[in-house]
Amino acid sequence: MHARDTAFWTARAAALRPAAQAYIDGRLQDARDGRQFASSCPHTGQTLAMVARCDRADVDAAVTAARRSFDAGHWSRCHPRERKVVLQKLAQLLRDNADELALLDCLDMGKPISDALNIDVPATAALFDWYAEACDKLYDEVAPTGPDALALVTREPVGVVAAVIPWNFPLDMAAWKVAPALAAGNSVLLKPAEQSPLSAIRLAQLASEAGLPDGVLNVLPGYGEEAGQAMGLHPDIDCLSFTGSTEIGKRFLAYSAASNMKMVWLECGGKSPNLVFADCADLDAAARKAAFGIYFNQGQVCSASSRLLVESSIHDRFIEKLLAEMAAFQPGNPLDPATRQGTLVDAGHTARVQGFIASGLQQGASLLAGGERLRIGHSDCYLQPTLFTGVTPDMRIAREEIFGPVLSVLRFDSEAEAIALANDSIYGLAAAVWTDQLRRAHRVARVLRAGTVSVNTVDALDPGVPFGGCKQSGFGRDLSLHALDKFSQLKTTWISL
Ligand code: NDP
Fold first, then answer.
1. Where would I find the Aldehyde dehydrogenase domain in this sequence (predicted)?
2. CA of 277 to the centre of ligand 1 (A)
3. Does 267 qualify as catalytic in the annotation?
4. Distance between CA atoms of 41 and 168, rounded to whole angstroms?
5. Domain 6-268+474-493 part of CATH 2.40.30.10
6. Which residue owns the Cα nearest ligand 1 atom 14?
């Protein structure tokens, strides 16, 4: 048995030959016009695969296959227990292929192999298991009519669902959309981000191996303006679920309006506040989680706790603790199992984050730690974990989503001021509150405008609780039974007795 060290993962990576075609109607296919794009590794700079560059003709073919499979009913109208068995088998296949799937995400977007292997892949498998279990546990309704009628309210799949996802958690984000959409009985088209298409293609292959009928899950790698837009505008897609930036989320609303009024669900950006009150008893835990909340996944997390609001009386003491916790997130080779911060997704995004660091300096914030772009091995897509104090609410680093390892610290002197600062954002995805006063915890949680408020932790997440935002973080919820609502419609059948 080899030690699973850097050399082990480097050798596995060198031997990898990922599938890179589109997956349509149960088989790998080139793009109809034969075009490809390079999927490259931000850590080595090497091309991992030449990937099918899907466009409108491929989307048309996938919609035709999806609609045919939906109408055939082998999945959409099968016994819920049959769906459960297939989704459970897929969950097991994900576990069986964990090394390969973790490597694909690690190489495609630079996340640490340990995170991909210990967090992303198990979470993805668990999610398929969770929705598999839901399939045969949900009951429909009988409405309380008078004695002369029986009114059934039944839940039906919407039909053909498209999912367009970002690159920060490639496999996880695919599962957040695909698992509930399939559990509800739909046929699905999935467009992964151009930076990270490979694990989605493998997911589709494994789904077929698990017994999913042809055409029920189709994967279309390609560019947003091509494959993504074609999905948004397609007249025969019934529902589109998007995770990505607020700017592109708005475009999907326009695509829907310009085409067939398809349902659109949006999970967009965030600038989540993390409020630390002086009455928090465990400041060590708060500092540990504050560091995790911004530096995990290189800060490329939509719900990252990117604004730290600290009560003035404990500010300096808390920052000392935070600086100590940051040490764990020094960047390193993503294939080293000890690494906790890998590369950012690519050079362009690294430069964008550097631009925010420059704006923080220019607008007068104090750079307390980090701020440098690093070269490690062949790559310069590494950024030091960065900490700004003395941030004021008008600064860009306090207002805009950076999507990198950059934390902005603001001070407050009262609960009312903390709430006002926290809610002073166009976003409303997540928030965290650290306090040991029960009444304060409830009082503050109630008025924070966010889809999830974590108390004495950050970024609380579980398959059983809904995740999503308000304001310009979007609408609709992923995860939990509520996600099924997005991919189902209600039918009333009124029987006059
Ligand atoms: P983008 O919005 O740029 O892209 C997301 C997806 O949309 C990609 O698949 C992209 O394709 C596609 N896309 C891009 N342009 C278009 C277009 N004109 N028409 C149709 N589709 C298009 O986001 P990023 O990939 O840069 O991801 C980062 C963003 O995602 C952050 O803002 C982050 O907050 C958000 N996010 C939100 C989450 C949430 O749950 N709320 C979770 C994770 C991330 P392509 O890759 O080819 O450009």
1. 34-492
2. 34
3. yes
4. 14
5. no
6. 224
Q: Whose CA is nearest to atom 10 of ligand 1?
A: 224
C-alpha to C-alpha distances, 13 to 39, 103, 196, 200, nearest whole angstrom: 14, 7, 15, 18
pLDDT at 3: 83
Which atom, in ligand 1's list, is nearest to the CA of 248?
Answer: 2
3-state class (DSSP) for residue 493: strand
CATH for 273-455 is: 3.40.309.10
Distance (angstroms) between ligand 1 centre and the Cα of 404 equals 15
Domain ranges, ordered by start, for the chain: 6-268+474-493, 273-455
Q: What is the mean pLDDT of each run of 10 residues along the chain (497 residues)?
A: 87 96 98 97 95 98 98 98 98 98 97 97 98 97 97 98 98 98 98 98 98 98 98 98 98 98 97 98 98 98 98 98 96 96 97 98 98 95 98 98 98 98 98 98 98 97 97 98 98 98
Mutate to test the pocket of ligand 1, among 168, 201, 234 (most ligand atoms within 8 A of CB): 168
pTM above 0.70, yes or no: yes
Which residue has a Cα nearest atom 45 of ligand 1?
Answer: 224
What are 324's two structure tokens?
């100590």
293 lines ligand 1 (CB under 6 A): no
Percent of residues, the chain, with pLDDT higher than 70? 100
